[in-house]
Every structure is written in structure tokens, then in C-alpha cells.
Amino acid sequence: MIGLLFGVAFITLLIQELFTRWKALKLREELGLSGPPADLFFGSRRYYNKVVSEKGLEGIPHIFGELEKEYGSTYGLYLGSYLEIMTTDPHIIKEVFISQFGNFIDRRNYGSNKVYPMLDGLLQVDHDGSYGVGWKEIRSTISVMFTSASMKKARMCQLECTIWMHATCHDLVDNLIDALQEKSRVHSGRIDAYAEYQAMTMDMIARCAIGQDLSCIKDRDNDFYRCARIFFSNMRYEKTRQLGAARKWTTILAARDQAADWNSDRVVYMEKVGTAMTILIMIELFVMIPVVWEVLKYLRPLTTYGRAERVLTRKLSTVIKQREKDRSAGIFRKLPDVIDLMLAENEKRELNGKTPFHHDVMVSNAWALFIAGYETTSSALSYASYLLAKHPEAHATLHEEVMSTFGSDQTIDYERVMKLPYLHAVFSEVLRMYPPVATLTGRTCIKNTIGGFPGIISMLLRETVIGGKIRVPVGVAVVAPVHTVMWSEQHFDRPTEFCPERFLNDKTASAWSATYLPFGIGPRNCVGARFAEMEFKTVLAAVIRQFAFELDPEHTDLKTIIGNVLLSPKNDELFIRIVERQPESDFESLKAEHVSAL
């Protein structure tokens, strides 16, 4: 009898779920949008699988470009039964991310992110926050550290070794140069630029954001560096490449009779297929059944990246608790980092009777800035080094600009390095071609409005209208695929070519606009954008002054993949060769050699 009741309940829930999904799949048509075919179970996921099967992991960044060609600039895409409106229309992007930002405050929040430390970190926290402190309050506290005035003050105080950004702009760069000098003398100067810049940016963000001196440039054997690399490398789609084998299991079985070695390899084949099928079923199940998404947050700590994440958050928690004790004892840092800013804000909030930042909220935001500040800039510097090695004329032009401004031994100061026109053009073009962040440009509709204005009709319809005609129901996300926007011929001439000059000729091209999105756009753009720009320019200027970049003969083609969030070098490596430069007196002859190589 009990079994019968369970059976009836299961069938009832299944029918209800299927009806709900069938109704959800009608929404795109009701909104007047087109898009790739979506089935009852997987939504549009099969299209992703098809692209990966045909083009490999490197084809993922081009998916939305192909969809744009077929369905136009704005279309609907289903992730399971969840509808997302994809758009490359700059007018709609501007409307969603700026003019109607109040209706689209929240980022997309998938199951595995609905848990500490993602849930209340600045990367993911919604307008309310799970502890009563929302996005706006956290942002206003943290953004103080990244203002131009704060960075300028730190840069001008380089003689004081304890100053907050001195590590970023002077001694850390010197440490990097020393490390590269040693490596330039072995293996024909072959280095993994990605790993070297990761060590540099981790040291930098650790000092500036959480007040820790890690010395990763000199010693990679510490938990922060090790766990951060594990975290990112195991979040990537590349790590689920077994899915490809799972999807081809029928092909393997069908061909077994033709395989001469089938009998001897049967066990090996079936073990591989069995493992892959298990992973496939789990992932596809999360897409098929929305309620299972909630289970993801409990599984996150059990994953490889979740375990690495836990080590980092525990260490950050210890740092914050110690800083609280120091402040209670009257010990304060001369210049504040993010932790100090949050603790100071807490003291003000308690005095004013406001909800203070919970300890987990502070850990979450220290973790978010540490992770984001470490990975994104290191990727950008790696891509820049590769592109300059591949384009000798741009390489020589940038070197000449740096040398004519700073010579061989002048300090690379904040004021001048931020104003170098060709360096800025290289910075802008690198981020256009290889924007590190790929998936945080989605915003979820949270308010019942029509055309941006609340009203009775909107309360009934529970939706917002964008572009004058496109209805966006509450809970539906509008996504601007960064790569598609910045790789579009409609927005940039010859978009596949590395051409820094495009940003010299058009002074507005690199403005953070609806067609240039490496840092996002609007009130919720990257809080550390200015910091990342200063870091990129300072490090690249210092390195190119000391070294020439060359392509490594074994790695002449750059291959990238998109993981959950980031565009990263495939296999977590990017090899180039560096050659230590001759004295300044030989600068002209070195320049001539690079130009003649064209």
C-alpha cells in the first residue's frame, strides 16, 4: 500500500514537472523570440554538445556568434527549462545594464553558486543578500579601495615600503623581473607566461586586498597559490571532457565487432564509458530537473574545486578574525585593505543601528576579490605577451614608447604609465580579443515594470519591457555574450586581427560602452577595473622594458577554452620565449631587428 502511494505521488510529481516544463518551453514563442530548438528535457543544451563534438572545446567561445548569424541579435536560449534572452544589440544592452538597471540588479544564480562563499560575495550577491546586506551596500564599501585617488596616493608613496600599493608597483615587479632574468638564461628563454603572471598577480592582490605577503613569485609552494590554481583548473569545461566519450558510447558499442582488439580492451572501454556516463547523467539531471539544482549547493564542498575553495576561505576567515583582534587592541594598518574597509564599515553600522556585515559575508567578499584579482589580470598579461610576440611591429612600437618615457632605469610611476597612448591601445585591444570574464554579463529581471515604469498592468504581467517591444518576465535573465559583442564585424572592423591602432584612431572605442564589455557595463561593472588597468600597464611596461617576447616554436597557436566563468589558455599554460634586452645604447638596432622580422 505504501509503495502504491509512493508510486502515485511520483507519477503525479512527474506529470506536474513535465507540464511545467512544457509550459516554460512555450514562453519563448509567447515573447516573440526565436532561438535554437529546445526539447522537453535538455532545453537547448544539445546545441552546445553538438558544437563541442564538432569543433572541440575551442569552439565554445564561438557558439553565440553562430547563433547570432542564424537567429539575429536577440534570441531566446533554454538551459533546461530556464529561458535566457541573449542579445548583442547595444541599445538593449545599454537599457538593461544602465537605464533600467534597477529592474535588472541581480546576476544569474545557478544552483552550485547558491552557497557560501559565492552567495554573498560581490560577484554573486543579490539586491538583498542572505544576511540582510545587499549588493549596493557591499559595493559602496569595497569600491573605496579602487578609486583613482586611492591608487594614485599609493603609487606616489613608493619610498615607504609599507604603503598599500608599493608592492604592486615596485618591489613585486622587481621580484618578477629577477625571476624572469633567471629563467631567460635556461631552456632558450622558454617560460610559461601564464604561470609567471599568476604568481605575480596573486602576490599583488594578496597584499592589496587582504594584507598578506605570499611571495609566490619566489616560492609557489603555499596553500593560497596551490589551492587557487586547483580551484580554477577544476571548474573548467575541459575537466568534463569525459562527457565526449559518454556521448559517443553508442558509437563505441556499434563498432566493437569491427575492433580487432575489442575482446582485450573491453574492460578498459567499459570502465571509461561507465565513468563518463555517470558524470553525464549527473550533469544532465541537473539541467533536466530544476529542483535538483538546489542539490548542487550541497555537492559543491565535495568537488575538487570545492575542497580547494574551503582551504582558501578558512585561511581568509583566520586573517579576518586576527584583524578584528588587532583593531580591538588599537592596532591599525597605515593604509586599509578590503578587510579593514569592511571592519570599519561594520563599526559604523553598529553605531547607527544597521545590520552589520556577517563574518561569512566578509570572508565571501575577501575571497571574491582575491580570486578575481588573481586570475583575470594574469590571463590578460599572458595574452598580451603572446600577441606582442606574434606581432613584432606592435612589440617594437610599445617598447619604444616605454623607453622614450621611462628610459632604462626610471621608476614607472602611476601618472605617466596610465597616460601612455600605445600602451593603453594594447591594453584595450588585448581585452577586446581575449576578455577574461565570459559569463557574468547576465542580469535577471527582478521587478514588475513596463518600459521601466511600475504600474498596475506590470504587476499583473510580472515583466519588464526592453527595446520598446521585448517583454522580460520576472526571473528571466538577459545576457550579453561578451565575446560575440566584441568579435562582431558590426562593432569592430577586422575583429579577428590584433590591431591596437584601432584604439588610437578612435578615442571613444575603448570607452566602457555597450560594444566594449571586458569589465561589464553599468553600475555593476567590475569593481576592480581601474586597479586591473593599472596593474596590467605597470607590469607589462616593466617587463617589456627588460625583455623581448618571441613565439615558442612548439606553441605558435594560442588555444583558449571557456570554463564556468573565464576564458583561459587551454591546459592552463601559455608558453613564449623571452630574451633579455641589450643596454639602452643598442635599442635602435634591436628595434630594427623586430621590424625586419615582418
TrEMBL record:
<keyword id="KW-0479">Metal-binding</keyword>
<keyword id="KW-0503">Monooxygenase</keyword>
<comment type="similarity">
    <text>Belongs to the cytochrome P450 family.</text>
</comment>
<feature type="binding site" description="axial binding residue">
    <location>
        <position position="526"/>
    </location>
    <ligand>
        <name>heme</name>
    </ligand>
</feature>
<dbReference type="GO" id="GO:0005506">
    <property type="term" value="F:iron ion binding"/>
</dbReference>
<protein>
    <submittedName>
        <fullName>Cytochrome P450</fullName>
    </submittedName>
</protein>
<dbReference type="GO" id="GO:0020037">
    <property type="term" value="F:heme binding"/>
</dbReference>
<keyword id="KW-0349">Heme</keyword>
<dbReference type="Pfam" id="PF00067">
    <property type="entry name" value="p450"/>
</dbReference>
<dbReference type="InterPro" id="IPR036396">
    <property type="entry name" value="Cyt_P450_sf"/>
</dbReference>
<dbReference type="InterPro" id="IPR002401">
    <property type="entry name" value="Cyt_P450_E_grp-I"/>
</dbReference>
<keyword id="KW-0408">Iron</keyword>
<dbReference type="InterPro" id="IPR001128">
    <property type="entry name" value="Cyt_P450"/>
</dbReference>
<dbReference type="GO" id="GO:0004497">
    <property type="term" value="F:monooxygenase activity"/>
</dbReference>
<dbReference type="GO" id="GO:0016705">
    <property type="term" value="F:oxidoreductase activity, acting on paired donors, with incorporation or reduction of molecular oxygen"/>
</dbReference>
<keyword id="KW-0560">Oxidoreductase</keyword>
<dbReference type="InterPro" id="IPR017972">
    <property type="entry name" value="Cyt_P450_CS"/>
</dbReference>
<dbReference type="InterPro" id="IPR050476">
    <property type="entry name" value="Insect_CytP450_Detox"/>
</dbReference>
